[in-house]
Amino acid sequence: MVGLQNLGLAIMVRIHASQPNFCREALEGKMPKQIEKKVAVIILAAGKSTRMKSELPKVLHKLCGRPMLGYVLDLVKSLNPAQVVAVLGYKQELVRKFVPRGVKIAIQKKLVGTADAVKTGLAALSGFKGTVLILYGDNPLLKKETLKKLLDYHFENNVDATLLTAQLKKPFGYGRIVRDKYSSICGIVEENDADEAQKDIKEINTGIMAFKKESLLANLASIRPNNRKKEYYLTDIIEILARKKYLVDGLKIPDPGEALGINTRAELAQANTLMQKTINDKLMQAGVTLVDPATTFINFGTKIGQDTVIYPFTVIERDVKIGKRCFVGPFAHLREGVELGDDVTAGNFIEMVRSRIGTKTFVKHFSYLGDTSVGSNVNIGAGTVTANFDGKDKHHTLINDNVNIGSDTIIVAPVKIGKFAMTGSGTVVTKNVPEKTVVVGVPGRVLRKR
Domains in the chain, ordered, with CATH? Predict the structure, then answer.
C-alpha cells in the first residue's frame, strides 16, 4: 500500500514538472505558502561601449532621437514596482542626468561583471523583501506585456529564479541555456566559454531574470571569476542554484528580437528600424497618413494631429508638434522645437528649427526658417531664408499674420515684419517692416503702402 502511495506521488510530481512549487511542497508534505508579490527592479547600466567603439556610455546611444535607457526607464515605470535601482559605472556623471527622481542610483566602482553589478544594486535594497527583476539599460525594445508574463510565471510557479529565454537559429554571441536529461535548466554558458557542443544549442539567455531576493542574495557570493575575462557573471548563479536544488525555470519569449540587447552599431541600427516602425505604426493608428513609412523618420515624442499627411523622405526630430490637416514634405527636415499649427503646408526641401508656424500658412519650397515665429495666413515664397546666426549668437525673426514673403527673400534677424506686409523677390530685409507696406531691394526699402 505504501508503495502504491509513493508511486502515485511520483506520478503527480512528474505530471506537475512544469510547476516546481507543487513538486517541492508535495514532497515535503506542506501546503503552498503565500507568495510575496512585491517587485523591485535593478537596471544594469554601468557598461562601456567597447564593441561600439565609442566613448559614450552604451545606454546613452540613441534610438529615434532618445537614449535607449529612456525606453527601459519608461518600461519599468509602467510596471509600478516597489523600488527601482539603476546601477551606473562608466561615465556615471553623464548617465545619471537621464535617471529620473524616484530611481535610486548605485555606483559600480569597478566594472568586473554583471554579478558584481547586481550585488551593488542589492545593497540599495537592504530593506526590501520580495522578487528582484534584473533588467539591462540596452534592452529598449522590451515590452511591458512580456515582463508581466515573466513575473506572473515566476509567482505562479513559486520558483527561486525564472529566466527569460529565446530560440535563435543563429545564436552566435549569446549565452546558451544548458538543460539536464530531464530538460530542467541547470546552467548558462557564455559564448566565449562554450565548447563546440554547447555552441550548437539554439536556446539563449536574454539576461532578463526574476529572483526571490533571499535566494539571489544567499548565492551571489558563491560566484567565482572562472571565465576567460576574469569577470563575475550573473549567469553563473543559475548553475549554483540548480546544484543546490533551488528551483529554476524559464519562460521562452515568442519574439526574440524584443529582448535582445544592443552591443554593436549594426545592432543599434537594427533596433532603430524596429523602434521607428513602432512609432510610425502608432501615428498611423492615431489618424496620421504616412505615404511611405519606410522613408519617413520620426523621433520619439513627436506629436502629430489627425488627417496630417507626411510625404516620403521627411525627417522629424525631437520636440516637434504638428497640428491637424497639415502637409509635410517630401524632403522636409523639421528639427527640435518646431511647432506647426493646423492646416499648415511645409513643403519640398525645407528645413526648420526652433520655429512656430501659425494656422493656414504655406512654406512651400526650398526654405530655411530658424528661430522664427510666423503668424497665420502667411505665404513664404520659394527660397526664403531667415539668417538667424551672426557667427556668435542666434537671433529671432517675427513674421506677423497675413504677410506675403516673395521668393528668394533673405531676412537678417533680429527683425519684425508687420501684418499684411509684402517683400519683393530677392529682397534682403535688414530692418523692421511696418504693417501694410511693400519692401523691395538690397537692402530692403519701403516701395509703397499696400
Answer: 17-258 (3.90.550.10), 265-449 (2.160.10.10)
Q: Give me the active site residues, please.
A: 365
- State residue 152's pLDDT score: 97
Helix (H) or strand (E) holding 385: strand 385-387
CA 76 to chain centre: 12
Determine the Cα angle at 211 with ends 210 and 214, to 5°. Answer: 160
Degrees (nearest 5) of the Cα angle 140, 146, 150?
A: 120
**For the chain, which ranges sit under pLDDT 50?**
1-32
**Residue 393 and residue 302: Cα distance in Å, rounded?**
27
**Could you tell me if 167 and 203 are in contact, meaning their C-beta atoms sit under 8 angstroms apart?**
yes
CA distance 444 to 450: 16
Return the C-alpha cell found at 94.
553623464
Q: How many CB atoms lie within 10 A of CB 15?
A: 11
In the β-sheet with 339-340, what is the strand arrangement from edge to edge?
303-304, 321-322, 339-340, 356-357, 372-374, 397-399, 415-417
Grid coordinates standing for 216?
A: 539571489
Cα 54–chain centre separation: 19
How far is residue 357's CA from residue 340's CA, in Å, rounded to a whole number?
5
The C-alpha cell at 27 is 514532497
Closest CA to 274 of 286, 287, 262, 288: 262
Quick: pLDDT tens for 17-29.
Answer: 444 443 444 334 4
- pLDDT, position 29: 42
Question: Can you give the pLDDT at residue 141?
Answer: 96
In angstroms, rounded to a whole number, what is the distance separating the alpha carbons of residues 429 and 415? 8
- In this structure, are residues 419 and 375 in contact, taking their beta carbons and an 8 Å threshold? yes
Determine what percent of the chain falls in helix, strand and coil, rounding each to the nearest 5: 25, 30, 45
Distance from C-alpha of 380 to C-alpha of 366, rounded to nearest angstrom: 10
DSSP 31: P
